[in-house]
Amino acid sequence: MSNLDFIYKRHSVRKFKQEQVPMEDMKEMIKAATYAPSGKNVQNWHFVVVRDKEKIQEMAKIIEKKHEEVASYTKDEEKREKFTKFLKYFTIFKNAPSVVIVYAGEYKVTALDLLREGGASKEEIDSLLKPAPGMQNIGAAMENLLLAAANMGYGGCWMTGPNYAKEEISDFIGFKKEGYTFVAMTPIGIPDGEVKSPPRKDIEEVMTIIE
């Protein structure tokens, strides 16, 4: 048994039992999320927990409607068909007892202002912003949340696909916070059935050692 078993418990869960997650457990998961590393300790995250089943169903319908709209933008039948196939993955949260939406706040990238004052090229600015350090804070928080959920007997599925409907969803749930935007979401609940993760790349393929 490894001390890292809590990591290997995490899987992407897409089917859930209808039993609701106790609010105290949900708060414990969110607390774990807030202990993620955060550049400059800005903690530029906000978590919205949706527990009303009708609201969760309506969120899925909003995505379905937006999906149809976006699919209609192309005249390429093959491209439209390929995009349409993703809808089932973007709405898998609809049968979960709870959904957590993660919002990201503003983050000032170190050296950005100085590089601009120094006349840095667009390529140099783009290169600095490409790693998106502020968004990395959110990624770390989401991973903490999912690891905590798995270790507590729950499951979730990190989702960014529905982001094209983020404004419509935010309007529907009535959440507004100055400077914050919808960036990811995850259903949270007790897994229904066996869950397996797809195989991982061999460690030698993804690791370089420089000595």
From TrEMBL:
InterPro entries referenced in this protein's UniProt entry, alphabetically: Nitroreductase, Nitroreductase-like, Nitroreductase/BluB
Residues annotated as domain Nitroreductase: 7-189
A Pfam match: Nitroreductase
Gene3D superfamilies: NADH Oxidase
Coiled-coil stretches: none
SUPFAM superfamilies with a match to the protein in the record: FMN-dependent nitroreductase-like
UniProt cross-references to PANTHER family, sorted A to Z: NAD(P)H NITROREDUCTASE RV3131-RELATED, NADPH NITROREDUCTASE
Designated name of the protein: Nitroreductase family protein
